[in-house]
Amino acid sequence: MASKVPQSRSRLVLRRLVRRRLALMGMVAVLLFFVFAYLGPHFYKWQYDQLDFQAFQQPPSSEHWFGTTQNGFDMLARTMRGMQKSLIIGLIGAVISTGIAAVAGAAAGYFAGWTDRAIVAFIDLLLVLPAFLIIAILSPIFSERTWLIFVLLLAAFQWMITARVVRSMTLSMKEREFVYAARFMGVSDWKIILRHILPNMSSFLIIDATINVSSLILSEVGLSFFGFGVQPPDISLGTLINDHWQSAGTPNGYQFYLPALLLVLLVLSVNLVGDGLRDALDPNAGGGGDR
Amino acid sequence: MTQPLLEVSELTVSFPSEAGPVAAVRGLSYRVMPGEVLGIVGESGSGKSVSCLAVMGLLPARARISGSVRFKGTELLGQTDRELSRIRGRGISMIFQDPLSALTPVYTVGDQIAEAVLIHQNISKQAAMDRAVELLSIVGIPNPQQRATAFPHEFSGGMRQRAMIAMSMANDPELIIADEPTTALDVTIQAQILETLDAVQKRTRAAIVMITHDLGVIAGAADRVFVMYAGKPVESGGIDDVFYRPRMPYTLGLLGSIPRLDVAERLPLTPIEGSPPSLINLPRGCPFTPRCPMRIEKCEEIEPDLVVLSSSGEGHCAACHRSNEIEEQNLRSIDIFPAPLIVGSPVSGIPRSKRAKVLELTNLVKHFPLVKGAIMRRRVGTVFAVDGVSLDVREGETLGLVGESGCGKTTTILEVLNLIRPASGKIVVLGKDTAHMSNRERFEIRRELNVVFQDPLASLDPRMPVSDILAEPLLTHGVPASERARRIEELLETVGLRAEHASRYPQEFSGGQRQRVGIARALALRPKLLVLDEPVSALDVSIRAGVINLLEKLQADLGLAYLFVAHDLSVVRHIADRVAVMYLGKIAEIGEVNQVFGLPAHPYTQALLSAIPLPDPRKERARRRIILKGDLPSPADPPSGCRFRTRCQKFANELTEQERKRCVDEEPILSVQGGPDADHLAACHYAQGYAVLDDVPGA
Questions:
Q1: Do residues B565 and B385 lie in contact, with contact meaning Cβ atoms separated by under 8 Å?
Q2: Which residue of B463, B469, B565 to mutate against A (max A Cβ within 10 Å)?
Q3: Among B14, B71, B209, B541, which residue's Cβ finds the most Cβ atoms within 10 Å?
Q4: Residue of B45, B442, B460 lying closest to A1 (CB–CB)
């Protein structure tokens, strides 16, 4: 029973992932959202900043698929533009936040002692700070500059829990014999972290980054809704919803419902991919066995 | 003829898996007579545990089981769990390998044993509890009344296994299945448990099926034995027949591959090449064919049946097409398996005192503080992990460092490998004191000093192919790329692997091959001293010999010095030139290996040697055994004076009250034994040589 048929890990993971139908659907959906947001504008006759003086406040029609706004902007073009921003914020933010978490958590766990205490104290401090409030207060500063600062801020308040998990995983991994072996052959500490410790928790980091994407998209939407996030003329799903939430329940409800529906679908499919990845990468997770 | 107690016939078990069905047991038939001890030996994956779980009806539902299992004439296979529960515990009971996971942590030990009694017997709770206390005292637990109210975590490993034995005999079963009952335990504790099992067997007259991979344990305990390979029995018979007249090449190889504790000269070990086959899609023919030096064409075509051998003892069967030839020519393992010639180390001609010291420890101390509290940390005690160890290793020699778990041997080598200034004492590696080493010097020394760990899978990064694993030390120490590729190829060849193995990942190798990769990595920078931390104890018996032979060959070819840490004294006797026995952070006895093992002077060494089962039934049964009392004391609170006195058989049985006082008050220091020229020191006030291994009446 101990014998295993050698099989490449990536192929095994892919096989498990494909077998989970929901995860597969999520992957396809995420892919379609990207195509929709980035390629869609090239095939659609209206641009997001283009006004149609023939159509104000029009419900969806063959001319304007998602209808138009009060000023005559095309809703579909604006939704695609908004989704571009939301997707890019989610992606960049997730990579940054998981990156910080990996480096800080691994450093705390590996070096122990004062490094550990300082990082853990900093994590605890960030955890008790009200992230929403701080970003809201800082928003006038970055509103005149680029939205990238906003992404950085979002990521800065996202990494702490992951970092704690990485820290405890590092604590157990640095007792593993291959880490000892590297240390005793004279490999430097940071090289050990980058070469041995982080790659061995890569499945956790990948899953975490995926789940972070959806949570960052939601944070962005929340902040933008209150006017503290993405600032006009940039458009995100959050600003779109902010602009049109009052139309909910009126005959112009489509202006709110359509982008909101796409937001929900996007977050849902990213989460499905995250769950599927977790099951596929971690054979011990529920139902990940040899079913 | 009496009716057999348990009759298993044509039992097969297979598990569905992604790659196809895994044939774990492929046709196993045996009988257990009342009161007999049947041993089942085999390596991991040979199907020995699975077959017994099938008998108990404890396999998961997805397992496909066929054949027949009859207990006193009643068919067990196909019965419902409820019906089986009536037999389990009362008719057949089981002792598991890991006593920690076999006991429920939230109930007291007494409650759990009483529960086992209550399920099958209609008696009052109080009576069941009394019975539990009685059972605990039978298995030799001191203060059973009090200990019955303790929780499993308050018991040591050996005591938990005793509690498991008590539970298994709670309802006077007629058959006890013991699945590797001593594998997780230290040798001195193993000796206690085997003695307890023996006592239980004598008392209850229960039959025992003993599953183990340790041929020594089988030799001492079993009446009949089954050798299993790839899900099938390949040889069976009376214990003497199988051990003295093995007729199947696998059994021969297995017996020839274990180093002997009781043989002073270095006999070559016969390794069995290759590794056990995958149980998925087994080819037809004998599954041992690829590893068998006696294979013929027929072996690949037809799988031999287990047939009775005519000229041997009663019931001696072997499954081999050529067992008749083996019988006629009376072949031994050395005749069949290619054994390497033993070559002496190039430095062995030079007397020891003239050779340079590669490692010298002087009064090395490592204490760990015991702290309590999260914010206000305060020190509540000290663990005296290593408490004044002095030893030296000279060029080209092997020093074996032995002792039970918790004696401080691992801490000692970690101190050496860390190359930092110890809390107290001195570590000198290749003439450089670690206390006055610059970072640069420390880095340079790492070239000369390397390590091989116990678990080859854990010590290789699973995400790196072998070429990257071997390149890492070279890269770290600035070997240029062109040179690296050449060196990796050379290293693979040195340890007996092929160049194309470089692109594979550790998971794709067998245990023995992985350990070879680990050794190759340690050799990459051409070190002078290798620290070997239990390098073979995680490997299967048949593979061990190959790795041991490789280590010996490397020492001879490259003039390496080894610091060999092990708990297996047979391996140490085989490979080491000198040996140091550690007990509770101190060295109890140190010296030339044949002097120490031949005439041990310290009572602990004597007990340790006596506790190791020999794979020789006659010797093993005739030996007198020294059984140590109790467990290793906590290193946080060592006994005063001599640390061994609480378990010492000499202290307990031979010394007078006055003599004992010295053991309690004064700590013994290492003193020379057996003449001024001897390389043999022991730390005992009343050291006296006693040839434990030769103590066989009539031998």
A1: no
A2: B463
A3: B209
A4: B45
- What's the structural domain count of chain B? 4
Do B472 and A186 count as a contact with CB atoms less than 8 A apart?
A: no
The per-residue pLDDT for A170 is 93
A178 to chain B: closest CA residue: B459
In chain B, what residues touch A176 (CB-CB under 8 Å)?
A: 458
Hey, is B81 helix, strand or coil? helix
Strands in B107-223 per DSSP E = 175-179, 207-212
* pTM for the model: 0.82
Structural domain boundaries enclosing B622: 594-699
* Whether the Cβ atoms of residue A26 and residue A32 lie closer than 8 Å to each other: no
- The one-letter code for the residue type at B488 is I
| pLDDT of B581 higher than 90 | yes
| Whole-number pLDDT of residue A3 | 36
Report the number of secondary-structure helices (H) and strands (E) in chain B: 26, 24
Contacts of residue B368, defined as CB under 8 A and 6 or more positions apart, other chains included, come to B382, B383, B385
The DSSP line for B382-441 is: EEEEEEEEEEEEETT-EEEEE--TTSSHHHHHHHHHHTS--SEEEEEETTEEGGG--HHH
Interface predicted TM-score of the whole assembly (ipTM), two decimals: 0.79
Q: Are strands B449-452 and B529-533 parallel, antiparallel or unpaired?
A: parallel
Which residues, including other chains, have CB under 8 Å from residue B307's CB and lie 6 or more apart?
A: B317, B318, B319, B323
Distances (CA, A) of B29 to B8, B226, B288: 5, 10, 19
Can you tell me whether residue B13 is helix, strand or coil?
Answer: strand
* Gap from B268 CA to chain A (nearest CA, Å): 29
B425–chain A nearest CA distance, Å: 21
Per-residue pLDDT tens over the stretch B116-134: 899 888 899 999 999 999 9
Residues whose CB falls within 8 Å of the CB of residue A54, separated by 6 or more in sequence, listed in order: A72
Same domain, B194 and B80: yes
Q: Which fold has domain A32-40+72-281?
A: MetI-like fold (1.10.3720)
Is residue B514 one of the residues assigned to a domain? yes
Helix and strand tally (H, E) in chain A? 14, 0
Burial (CB < 10 A; 0-12, 13-18, 19+), residue A163, is buried
Residues in A closer than 8 angstroms to B459, CB to CB, are 177-178, 180-181
